[in-house]
Structures are given as C-alpha cells and as structure tokens.
Automatic annotation (TrEMBL):
It comes from the Bacteria. PANTHER family: KTR SYSTEM POTASSIUM UPTAKE PROTEIN C, POTASSIUM CHANNEL PROTEIN 2-RELATED-RELATED. GO terms for molecular function: monoatomic cation transmembrane transporter activity. Residues 2-118 form the RCK N-terminal domain. Residues 135-218 form the RCK C-terminal domain. Coiled coil: none annotated. This is TrkA family potassium uptake protein. GO terms for biological process: potassium ion transport. The lineage of its organism: Bacteria, Bacillati, Bacillota, Bacilli, Bacillales.
Length: 218
C-alpha cells in the first residue's frame, strides 16, 4: 500500500513538495488558507482544500489520522505552524516534519514533538520527497531536473548476486558507483563484487531509471 501524505501550507516549499509527490504518482492531500494557492496546486494534488488547520475537528474531518506523514510548511506564520504541529502530534500522526522560519521557531517545534524540523530552500523539496516516498531509498541528491544520485538499501532479492549477474546498467539504465558496507565504502566496485543484504547501494542515473530499478530490481 502506497504511503499517503498531507502538505499544510502551499508556499514555495509546500507547493514544490506537492508537485514532487504528484510526479512520483503518490497520493497527497494539500491544504492552505488561501483560495488562490489552493486553486494553483489543485491539479497536482489528490485532494486540495482551503481550511484553517488550527482545529482538530477540521483535521479529523479531512481524514488526517489515516495519513502516514505530514509536512507543515506555513512559512512565517509561526503561531499557525506551532499550533498545527501540536494538534497533529496530539492526534497521533506518525511523522510530522515542519519548516522552521528561524532558530527560535525550531526550538519551539522540537519542544512540542515535531519529528523533524527543516530549513529548506526550494530545491530541497525534491530531495525530501524522494526520500520519504520510498522504503528502500536512504538519501537522494539532485544532479539536475531529471537525474540524481541515490542511496538504496539492498534487499534479500539481490543478496549474494554480483554486479555482473545483475547487469543493472543494461537492464535499468542506471549505474552502481559505490557500495557502503559496515562503515566502509567500495568505490567503483568491480563487476565480480557481490551485493550483501544490508549493503547500501550508491546509484547514479535518471530519476525514471532509478525508480524502475528500485521497483523491479530490489
């Protein structure tokens, strides 16, 4: 079952997250108090609604309790950010990541239980979206609009299989450029190198090819 996300606040960062989830085919509920922003991002969200999120009753009606992960990106509206975060945590939301306006905002968010506090630039939205969508993806670094470097957790499916046997470049179009294993990193591993369960594979390629490898190869 695919993860479900809610993005609260559709400024540059929140809006960028919604678009990235949309491009990845992931369900996302988008929320903002501004009708203009709601209309702007409606084409990119599973549902897009105009509401004030400082009400537990309102969030409950929207089915927030069924979501896996919430992003609170209310910009400089620190009061709304803090109260919304507090409500989400009291509702039992598993993961609440919040955009902080400054270091003081960050301290407050940490004290009330935010699972992660971030100070994102707009281009960070892509990295975060890629990271949380996948169960296997550990990290994502954007190289261009369509290409990146990712860290993927190796599974039982590739355990004790060599790079030559998997032939990832030919089958998926991406390349394993490194393997992290027990604190060490094998750079440019040889074709005969076998992958072990628990390894972290460092993969470079187009986002499309990497997604396909993650889906079918791992």
């Amino acid at each position: 079952m695919k993860k479900q996300f809610v993005v609260i606040g559709l400024g540059n960062f929140g809006g960028s997250l919604v678009k990235e989830f949309f491009d990845a085919g992931t369900e996302v509920l988008a929320i903002d108090q501004s009708l203009e922003r709601v209309e702007k991002y409606r084409p990119f969200a599973t549902h897009c609604v105009q509401v004030n999120t400082m009400s537990e009753a309102t969030l409950t009606q929207l089915g927030i309790r069924n979501m896996d992960h919430a992003f609170v990106a209310l910009g400089d509206d620190i009061e709304s950010s803090v109260l919304t975060t507090l409500i989400l945590k009291e509702m039992g939301m598993k993961q609440v990541w919040v955009k902080a306006a400054d270091v003081y905002h960050k301290r407050v968010l940490e004290k009330i239980g935010a699972d992660k506090v971030i100070h994102p630039e707009r281009d960070m939205a892509k990295r975060i979206a890629h990271h949380v969508i996948s169960e296997k993806m550990i990290d994502y670094i954007e190289l261009s609009e369509k290409h990146g470097i990712v860290e993927l957790a190796a599974s039982d499916k590739v355990h004790q299989r060599s790079l030559l046997e998997l032939n990832i470049r030919a089958n998926y179009g991406c390349t394993i450029i490194g393997i992290q294993r027990k604190g060490d990193t094998i750079v440019s591993p040889a074709a005969e190198e076998k992958i072990l369960k628990g390894d972290t594979l460092i993969v470079i390629g187009s986002n499309e090819d990497i997604y396909q490898f993650e889906k079918d190869g791992l």
